[in-house]
Amino acid sequence: GENVEQHPSTLSVQEGDSAVIKCTYSDSASNYFPWYKQELGKRPQLIIDIRSNVGEKKDQRIAVTLNKTAKHFSLHITETQPEDSAVYFCAASTSGGSYIPTFGRGTSLIVHP
Amino acid sequence: GAVVSQHPSWVICKSGTSVKIECRSLDFQATTMFWYRQFPKQSLMLMATSNEGSKATYEQGVEKDKFLINHASLTLSTLTVTSAHPEDSSFYICSAREGAGTFALSQYFGPGTRLLVL
């Protein structure tokens, strides 16, 4: 089955800096990669996703890149703000697996004002 | 749009009792619903996947007789923790997905239910 590794487990940055979270996956058939943000005590919320037919997707301060050859994808947050502080989860899924996602272990992002 | 509700938000029960948790998609029809368990500072552990009108598919290691899942309609799924024990104490989160093919892949999560078994 799919295995998703996520790094780092904790990331501390100053407000205004950029943050990068990286994930690798094992199943070369995976073709859908969502990212979720979970604030303390709240539900995970989808913030951006990418399909395997594109290499990069951007939404304001958030971008995701995908390298299918290397089987890794990354979340980039620019101009970080304190409200970006949360746990971020990457996930990978495949049509053969009914798009049931396998989640990474999460990255706790702390943005210091 | 794409709101998922979950009830109750928290429950405390005595060991040996059963607890039912409801998950509803409020503004869309959920062909697939997922139930997760999350321990503090850990990732989401998928327990089972349910499609409306079908039996749930449980992940390896999850006891189907312990965690009963019913997906009777396109907007409601329930998880019943039967004969709960302290080790079942956890945060249970459901999610719902509108589509099953290459479209509408996004999952929308409920707010979670915190279960404490005494």
Structure description:
The complex is a heterodimer of chains A (113) and B (118). Chain A is mainly β and 113 residues long. Chain A is 0% helix and 54% strand. The termini of chain A are far apart. Helices cover 0% and strands 52% of the residues of chain B. In chain B, strands 2, 4, 5, 6, 9, 10 and 11 form a 7-stranded mixed sheet that branches. In chain B, strands 1-3-8-7 form a 4-stranded antiparallel sheet, with no helix packed on it. In chain B, strand 4 (32-38) and strand 5 form a beta hairpin. Chain A binds chain B through residues 32, 34, 36, 42-46, 49, 89, 93, 95, 98-101, 103-106, 108, and chain B through 4, 32, 34, 41-44, 46, 49, 93, 95, 97, 100-102, 105-112.
Task: Please outline what is shown here.
The complex is a heterodimer of chains A (113) and B (118). With 113 residues, chain A is mostly beta strands. Helices cover 0% and strands 54% of the residues of chain A.
Summarize the helices and strands and which ones pair or pack.
The complex is a heterodimer of chains A (113) and B (118).
Chain A: E1 4-7, E2 10-14, E3 19-25, E4 32-38, E5 45-51, E6 56-59, E7 62-67, E8 72-77, E9 86-92, E10 102-103, E11 107-112
Parallel strand pairs in A: 2-11
Antiparallel strand pairs in A: 1-3, 3-8, 4-5, 4-9, 6-7, 7-8, 9-10, 9-11
Chain B: E1 4-7, E2 10-13, E3 19-25, E4 32-38, E5 44-51, E6 57-58, E7 67-73, E8 76-81, E9 90-97, E10 107-109, E11 113-117
Parallel strand pairs in B: 2-11
Antiparallel strand pairs in B: 1-3, 3-8, 4-5, 4-9, 5-6, 7-8, 9-10, 9-11
Which properties best describe this structure?
heterodimer, A: 113 residues, mainly beta, five-stranded antiparallel sheet, globular, B: 118 residues, seven-stranded mixed sheet, 11 strands, 52% strand
